[in-house]
Amino acid sequence: MLALSGCSSLWNCTDTAAERGEAGVRVQVEDVSGRPLGVTAEVVDWRLEPHPQVPSEGDHVSFRYRFDGTDEDFGPAVDACAVDEERVALGCQTVHSSEAFERGGVLTGDSRLAVEHPERVAGVLLVPNDQSYVGRTCEEDLKDGGGPHPPEPATLGDQL
Question: What is the pLDDT of residues 89-119, one digit of tens each?
C-alpha cells in the first residue's frame, strides 16, 4: 500500500450564503460578498390592476423598476417583493437588469406579481443582493465549488 504524506481524500470545501441585505424602494445592488456593485435599482411606481390577458384572476401588482449604472448585455438581478404594512412579503420574483430596456440612459422594466391578497399590498421593495450569480456548490463540485453565494431568494412570508 502506498500512502502520500500531506494528501487527504477529502477536499476542503465550504459553501457560504451571504446575509440578506436591507430591502428598500431604492437600493444599492450588492455582490455576494456584500460590496456595492455601483448599480442602483429602484421601484419607480406600482399599482393594483387586473392582468390584461387574464382579468378573471383579479388584481395583480403591476410595477415599474429601473437600474442605473449597468448595461443591457450583462447586469445584476434583484428580488422584487410586494409587501404589507409590516414589510412581510406577499409575493416575490427576481427581476433582471438584462430584461429591462434602455430609456433615457437608464434601464427600465415592467413586471407583475400575482399575490393571494392584493388588498394587503402596501408597497413593492427590492432586495439589494445580486441574484444573477450562478456559482457552483460543494455538492456540485467538491474540488472547485463552494465559496460565497447570494442569500436564498426572498419568499412569501419573509420579513423584509
Answer: 999 999 999 889 988 778 999 999 999 999 9
